[in-house]
Design goal:
Elements: E1 8-13, H1 14-24, H2 38-55, E2 63-67, H3 76-79, H4 98-107, E3 111-113, H5 120-133, E4 137-141, E5 155-159, E6 164-166, H6 168-175, H7 182-189, H8 204-214, H9 217-222, H10 230-238, H11 240-250, H12 272-282, H13 285-294, E7 325-326, H14 330-343, E8 345-352, E9 362-370, E10 373-378, E11 382-383, E12 393-394, H15 401-413, E13 418-421, H16 424-432, E14 441-443, H17 444-452, H18 460-468, H19 476-479, H20 493-514, H21 517-521, H22 524-531, H23 534-544, E15 546-547, H24 550-575, H25 584-594, H26 612-620, H27 624-648, E16 656-657, E17 660-662, E18 672-674, H28 686-691, E19 701-708, H29 711-720, H30 723-731, H31 735-744, H32 753-767, H33 772-779, H34 783-796, H35 798-814, E20 816-818, E21 824-826, H36 835-867, E22 873-879, E23 882-888, H37 892-904, E24 919-924, H38 927-930
Parallel strand pairs: 1-2, 1-4, 2-3, 4-5, 7-10, 8-13, 13-14
Antiparallel strand pairs: 5-6, 8-9, 9-10, 11-12, 15-16, 17-18, 19-23, 19-24, 20-21, 22-23
Helix pairs in contact: 1-2, 2-4, 7-8, 7-11, 12-13, 14-15, 16-23, 17-20, 18-20, 24-27, 26-27, 29-35, 29-36, 31-32, 33-34, 34-35, 36-37
Family: Belongs to the DNA polymerase type-A family.
Enzyme class: transferase
Catalytic activity: DNA(n) + a 2'-deoxyribonucleoside 5'-triphosphate = DNA(n+1) + diphosphate
């Protein structure tokens, strides 16, 4: 049943259900193994009551979903690092019940939804918006005040515990304003529970009075001088920015990316066998009996043997931070160095003043040679005002920095001593700046990544909690946060020692836990040939950096400003009045009220939606004003995100931008780039491509870019065994034109650009498991027509459908998929039901293709340094399928020939591809010319 007019969507606040269930019931444990299940029992009873009541209701939902918080960290912590900092950790006996409530939701055959980096409230806001825009009715089952901003326009709330509706009247009673101004009131009043600062001394009532008087928050802040009460007036003036930040924190994101549609949330009856099986496993006798009676089944017998053990972390290994040693003189350090040589390995960590390795100063080094036996070598702790660069004095009780590093250098460079690190690339770069070439290494982050890619994150704190059952000392207890935060050199040596030495101790224990598992999991080759050797390669690239011309960026920023001003003038002329082009509210009023354009839809705040999709539709109809606004927005984005921001990333000492590559971020093996992200610089528009002109080569050198041509399609042709595609690649044909010819029966010499474009969209879409809906949106064609294209594609190339089915089946059986090189990508959600199932299947289908491509360029990058060692050339950047080099003008041909040979042969000898890898090359004075 497609979602639309006459449909009713229920959005259940699952996180609220869990905590209500936990606090409403006494502690309850499963008899067979003592697993805490009290919250799960209460949660299941709530869901059962919900299903029974709605089964008998004339107003039953047609669609429903249970929404959960993915984790305690979201994008709001990037906006304000103290967001929800006051919230206590969940009770120990509640933690293991969180995943069981998700299992319970699926057992009841309800859609179970959570999205990383977003709160449950954001997902609810997004689904509520989608439901309202589709013409349906939406009921949010929650009493959470933060969701009251969504009420109105077909969206209502229901307190499920009191069975009390929450509508416009109840919202006004709570906040003193309507739903469209709830965010403004919350931004002023703040929230001590979520640690939202707001305006000091202003509560809900005062905030409502101010908003009702001035109309909205922006007007209030702009006219704060008019407030009669001196204290209130000064508070708003002094804390205006804090209030604006608070508004960002309380405003729900109704554009949360979701990998499913409303149609996927259609209500389905529970599968009696699945539901009874789960309840029986939990040993919920009473509820099992009720469900069995409802479905006219006999209750299954309780298991006679103990239930299967729930995977748990090992018992604490006995961390005693008071036993760690602080090394303050050379004799003690030399004794530790002798112990390291005897052991043949050492866990190593550095403490610094910043996260940017190119600007951070080394403060100390920690070492560990056995579990529980760790030390800290303080080098640059300071006292008094100032910092390491001047004004501050070195704290007493530290070794001479140069002498300590000179003593450590031989052992840290000794090929007979293994150095064990967590996120080794950071420490390698820090020590490289001190003239120490740390090698050989093992990296516990990458060991975990090779073993557990796709299951969880690989940060040290998370790994320690999961695999050592130990929570490390939080860094915030030493550094503080916000304006009062300090750098590590200001931490006293006595405080620093247990924290720093513990890091080395944890790293050593993780290594002991992970390293033996490589062989058992059959990922030794992945770690040894693609993960560990990549660390020094990336470290060298990051330290080299890429030269960026500040003047070019500055001129571009000025040019963008002038062009934006010209566009604003055009927009104002087309509108017949001046208005703030950057204000969606004012733009909506111009487009849909004044100009009476079709397609205007108001959101929960009463403002018209003016997103890119709306403006693109209007522009496609021939309306100039929305087209000009799209141009203006694009320039504004380029200016703020790139031409302005990139200038701040130019290192003052090197004149270069030094990005940092994340090795373990994507489960498929793809690298990502941060601080700044150089992999997302747009190239589809002329203005976006111009930004690459600011990335330049020094005088006498040029930039050279080499990239794989259609590598993922080539891998698909090989893996799926598609003869037509393989032949086309071998013969060098236009693959998209060939596909179009095969699908639509159009001779190659009669191919039109439009037909080729459709085939190209399908070719690349299939790799990512695109749906008919997604293809229809990309091509702007009816959904049925798009689905017809996909169906025809699979008919013509049946091997692709077979590959997809086989891959999903493998994932369901084994819990992971594999690349051609043996990288394991775990698929924990592959057996999920509901909207998450489609995403999990698409991810599993795509992972071997994207992962194999990532493996190939990894293998190439590792081989390149040796291939060009005697050339005046440096590898600078990797952008997915592309490598960028800086080289002397006279060595370009040699560089291209050598790197092309490495890249085109990177799969050998492990994998013999049935299609050739082809590498395109370009060169120029800047990146735009080289690409």
């Amino acid at each position: 049943m497609g979602f639309g007019k006459g449909c009713h969507l229920h959005l259940i606040d699952g996180s609220a259900y869990i905590f209500r269930a936990y606090h409403a019931l006494p502690p309850l444990s499963r008899k067979s193994d003592g697993l805490p299940v009290g919250a799960v029992a209460g949660f299941c009873n709530m869901l059962w009551r919900y299903l029974v009541e709605n089964d008998a209701s004339a107003d039953a939902p047609t669609h429903a979903a249970v929404i959960f918080d993915y984790s305690s960290k979201t994008f709001r912590n990037e906006i304000y690092d103290l967001y929800k900092a006051n919230r206590p950790e969940p009770p120990e006996d509640l933690r293991p019940q969180f995943p069981l409530t998700r299992d319970a939701t699926r057992a009841f055959n309800l859609a179970c939804i959570e999205v990383e980096d977003y709160e449950a409230d954001d997902i609810i806001a997004t689904l509520a918006r989608q439901g309202r825009e589709a013409g349906g009715r939406v009921t949010i089952l929650s009493s959470d005040k933060d969701l009251m901003q969504l009420v109105g326009g077909g969206v209502e709330m229901l307190d499920p515990m009191k069975n009390r509706p929450i509508g416009l009247e109840q919202v006004e009673e709570k906040f003193g304003v309507g739903p469209d101004r709830v965010v403004d009131v919350q931004a002023l009043a703040g929230d001590s529970v979520d640690n939202i600062p707001g305006a000091p001394g202003i509560g809900i009532k005062t905030a409502a009075l101010l908003i009702n008087e001035f109309g909205d928050l922006d007007t209030l802040l702009a006219r704060a001088e008019e407030i009669k009460q001196p204290k209130r007036r000064q508070t708003l003036i002094d804390h205006a920015e804090q209030i604006r930040i608070s508004r960002k924190l309380v405003l729900l994101d109704d554009q949360t990316p979701l990998e499913f549609g409303l149609d996927d949330l259609e209500v389905r009856d529970p599968d009696p066998e699945a539901l009874l099986g789960f309840l029986n496993q939990m040993e919920f006798r009473t509820l099992t009996r009720r469900v069995a009676e409802k479905f006219d089944r006999d209750p299954p017998p309780l298991p006679e043997a103990p239930a299967p053990e729930v995977a748990a972390a090992p018992e604490p290994a006995g961390f005693d931070t008071t036993a760690y040693e602080c090394i303050r003189d050379m004799a003690v350090l030399e004794r530790w160095i002798a112990d390291i040589h005897e052991a043949g390995f050492v866990a190593l960590d550095t403490e610094t003043t910043a996260l940017d390795e190119m600007r951070a100063e080394l403060v100390g080094i920690s070492l560990a040679v056995a579990p529980g036996r760790a030390c800290y070598v303080p080098l640059a702790h300071t006292v008094g005002e100032g910092d390491l660069f001047g004004g501050a004095a070195l704290a007493e009780g530290q070794m001479d920095r140069d002498a300590a590093l000179a003593a450590l250098k031989p052992v840290l460079e000794d090929p007979a001593v293994l150095k064990i690190l967590q996120n080794a690339k950071y420490d390698v770069k820090i020590l490289a700046r001190q003239g120490i070439d740390v090698a050989p290494i093992d990296d516990t982050m990458l060991l975990s990544y090779a073993l557990h890619g796709g299951l969880h994150g690989h940060g040290m704190d998370a790994l320690s909690d999961r695999y050592l059952n130990h929570q490390p000392i939080p860094i915030k207890t030493l550094l503080g946060s916000g304006k009062s935060a300090r750098t590590f050199d200001k931490v006293s040596i006595d405080e620093a020692t247990p924290y720093a030495a513990e890091d080395a101790d944890i790293t050593l224990r993780l290594w002991e836990a992970f390293k033996p598992q490589l062989h058992r999991a059959r990922v030794t080759r992945v770690y040894e040939t693609m993960e560990r050797p990549l660390v020094p390669v990336l470290a060298a690239m990051e330290m080299a950096g890429v030269k960026v011309d500040r003047d070019v960026l500055s001129r571009m920023s000025n040019a963008f400003s002038q062009k934006m001003a010209g566009l604003e003038a055009e927009i104002h002329e087309l509108a017949g009045e001046t208005f703030n082009v950057g204000s969606p509210k004012q733009l909506g009023e111009i487009l849909f009220d004044k100009m009476s354009l079709q397609g205007g839809k108001k959101g929960k705040t009463g403002a018209y939606a003016t997103g890119a999709d709306v403006l693109e539709d209007l522009a496609a109809e021939g309306h100039d004003l929305p087209a000009r606004v799209l141009d203006w927005r694009q320039l504004s984005k380029l200016k703020s995100t790139y031409t302005d921001a990139l200038q701040d990333h130019i290192n003052p000492e090197t004149g270069r931008v030094h990005t940092s590559y994340v090795i373990s971020g994507a489960s498929t093996g793809r690298l990502s780039s941060t601080d700044p992200n150089l992999q997302n610089i747009p190239i589809r528009t002329e203005e976006g491509r111009r930004i690459r002109t600011a990335f330049v080569a020094p005088e006498g050198r040029v930039l050279v870019a080499l990239d794989y041509s259609q590598i993922e399609l080539r891998i698909l042709a090989h893996i799926a065994g598609i003869d037509a595609l393989r032949d086309a690649f071998r013969e060098g044909h236009d693959i998209h034109a060939m596909t179009a010819s095969e699908m639509f029966g159009v001779p190659m010499d009669q191919m039109t650009s439009e037909v080729r474009r459709q085939a190209k969209a399908i070719n690349f879409g299939v790799i990512y498991g695109i749906s008919g809906f997604g293809l229809a949106r990309n091509l702007r064609i009816p959904r049925a027509e798009a689905q017809g294209f996909i169906d025809r594609y699979f008919e013509r190339f049946p091997g692709i459908r077979a590959y997809m089915d086989d891959t999903v089946a493998f994932a369901k059986e084994h819990g992971h998929v594999e690349t051609l090189f043996g990288r394991r990508i775990h698929t924990p959600e592959i057996n999920a039901k509901g909207p998450g199932a489609g995403f999990a299947k698409r991810a599993a289908i795509n992972a071997p293709i994207q992962g194999t491509a990532a493996d190939i360029i990894r293998r190439a990058m590792i081989r390149v340094p040796a291939a060009i060692a005697d050339l005046p050339a440096t590898m600078l950047l990797q952008v997915h399928d592309e490598l960028v080099f800086e080289v002397d003008a006279g060595a370009v041909e040699d560089l291209v020939a050598r790197v092309r040979e490495v890249m085109e042969g990177a799969a050998d000898p492990v994998v013999q591809l049935s299609v050739p890898l082809v590498v395109d090359a370009g060169q120029g004075a800047n990146w735009a010319e080289a690409h």
